[in-house]
Structure formats: C-alpha cells, structure tokens
Design goal:
The chain is mainly α and 313 residues long. It has one domain. The protein is 88% helix and 0% strand. It has eleven helices and no strands. Helix 3 runs parallel beside helix 6. The termini are far apart. The model has no long low-confidence stretch (mean pLDDT 76).
Length: 313
C-alpha cells in the first residue's frame, strides 16, 4: 500500500508538472510581444550610462523587476481566486496604456524630430563625461527608477495575460505557471539587455585583438550595434500597438469577431488577398491599437490643457 500511494503521488506530481509546462509555453507565446517591448524599452532606457556603470544599472533594474513580480504574482493570484471578472478589464486598461505609450513615442519622435541630431548627441555625451561622479549617481538613480516604473506596467501586462491563460486551473497550477513566467521573463529580458548594452564594448575588445578575423568581427559588431538599438526601438513601438491592440480587440467581442470573419473571408477569397490572410488579424489589431492609442493620447492632452488652464486662472 505505501508503495502504491507513493507511485500515485509521483504520478500526480508528474501530471501537474506536465500541465504547468504546457501552460507556461502557452503563456510565453502569448506574452512574447510584450517581452519584445520590455526588452526594447529597457535596453533603450539603460543606454546612455557610462560604460563602467552599465551592468550595475542593469542589475539594479533587474532587482527592481523581481520586486515588481513579488508584488504582482500574489496580487494576480488573489484576483484570479476572488475577482476573476476583473481580469479582462485590467487587461483592457493595460492594453490601452500600451497603445497610448506607443502613440506618445510616435508623437514625440515626429514633433521633436529636429532635436535628435548628431551634434546634440555628442554634446550630451560630453556633458555626461564632464558630470561629477556624485551627480552621475543621481542620474543613474533617476534612470533606474524610470526603468523600474516602466517594468512594473509591462510586468503587470505579462502577469495579466498569463492569468488569463491559466484561468480555470486550480490554485497550485496557477501559482506555478505565474511564478515560472515571472522568473523566466525577468532573467531572459535582463540577461539580453545586459548583452545588448555591452555589445559595443565586446566589439571594441575584438578590434584590439591580433587576429584579422577577430578585428573584422569586432568592427562588424561596432557597425551593427547602433542599427540593432534602432531596430529594437522600432520593434518595441510596433509591439505596443500589436499587443495592446490585440488585447483591446479581444475585450470587445463584436470587433474581435468582425476581424476574425474578415480574415477568414480573405483566406477563402483567393488571389493576393489570401496571401495576406494570415497577417490580416495581426495588422488589423495593430491598426485598432493605433486608433485606440491616438484617442487616449488626445484625451490625455485635453486633460493636461484643462488642468493647465484651471491652474493659471
């Protein structure tokens, strides 16, 4: 009997672990867009720090991210247990925030385009180099706080999407999947951020080696590093609309079904339209995200102006 009970227990444990593995993979696939956004934003925010301080700043932000997860995972479990109806509204709010943030980035880019010049960038680097160490620590602290705040919002989005994935599962499976996603995402994102911000140092080190191949590889890394950062910024902005728009659309059933029907009609219609059918849903989600983000941005601008007027009068 004891042997039979032990085998039954081991079988139950294996079943739970198998379920957790499958659910974690599903959640990771659904949160991949937010992960890309998180990676791009954190790499962008940490950039601009003095080379010797890049890894300590990344580590400080990573610790802040772990603290965020320690707050968010128990909160998500409580919501999932006692207020599961709140998951969709919270997802909608997070999706709208992502769309708004994407529109704000686009607006800032196009409205202040003339300010982003090489001369301005060189001046900022020179000012940073001339900054006393004690003032530089304050600058690092501000960067870390800003990055941790951004991470909190994106982490909340990841946890909410994961919670939606495991809705209906028992408490143990939910807690294991949420914990697994929290750990894997944090380690993955900040491990990659650390690698990205040190790319230029790795390239410079290789250019000083004796071998011709190492020098060429180092030169290639130095040449490609700025393009990589730029690409991450663009992909991160696109991910805001695709992920945020997808969440918003999913929370509005008539719109979600209309997009699904349109994609199916394109697929069965034949011709060039059928080739675009697999991407139609994603692109339409992104377009909806752009529209939603624009509306939120206009509302925020209106509120800011109203507050400004009331403050002055």
């Amino acid at each position: 009997m004891p042997a039979g009970s032990l085998l039954t227990l081991l079988d139950d444990i294996a079943t739970i672990l198998d379920d957790v593995s499958i659910l974690t993979k599903k959640a990771a696939a659904k949160t991949a867009g937010v992960l890309g956004d998180d990676l791009a934003l954190n790499a962008q925010q940490v950039s601009g720090v003095v080379s010797q301080r890049e890894l300590p700043v990344v580590w400080a932000v990573a610790k802040g991210s772990f603290i965020n997860k320690l707050i968010l995972v128990p909160a998500a479990l409580l919501i999932g247990t006692f207020a599961s109806w709140a998951v969709t509204p919270l997802l909608m709010i997070g999706g709208l925030f992502l769309c708004f943030e994407g529109c704000e980035k686009l607006a800032h880019h196009f409205l202040h385009r003339g300010e982003h010049t090489d001369d301005r960038a060189e001046k900022e680097i020179a000012d940073l180099a001339a900054t006393p160490p004690e003032a530089r620590v304050e600058t690092e602290s501000e960067k870390i706080k800003g990055a941790v705040r951004t991470d909190f919002v994106l982490s909340a989005e990841i946890i909410a999407i994961t919670l939606e994935t495991v809705k209906g599962q028992d408490f143990m499976r939910q807690s294991m999947v949420l914990s697994s996603i929290a750990i894997v995402m944090t380690v993955g994102v900040y491990g990659l951020v650390a690698g990205i911000v040190k790319l230029d140092d790795a390239g410079l080190h290789l250019t000083r080696q004796r071998g011709a191949f190492a020098r060429k590889l180092g030169g290639g890394i130095l040449w490609s590093a700025p393009f990589l950062m730029k690409s991450l910024s663009i992909l991160g902005t696109a991910a805001m609309f695709l992920v945020g728009g997808g969440i918003v659309v999913h929370g509005i059933p008539p719109l979600h079904h209309a997009i699904e029907h349109l994609a199916e009609a394109m697929q069965h219609g034949g011709g060039p339209a059928s080739w675009l059918a697999p991407l139609a849903g994603t692109l339409l989600n992104g377009l909806c995200g752009l529209v939603a983000g624009t509306l939120v941005l206009l509302a925020v601008i209106g509120i800011r102006k109203a507050r400004g007027k009331s403050a002055t009068h």
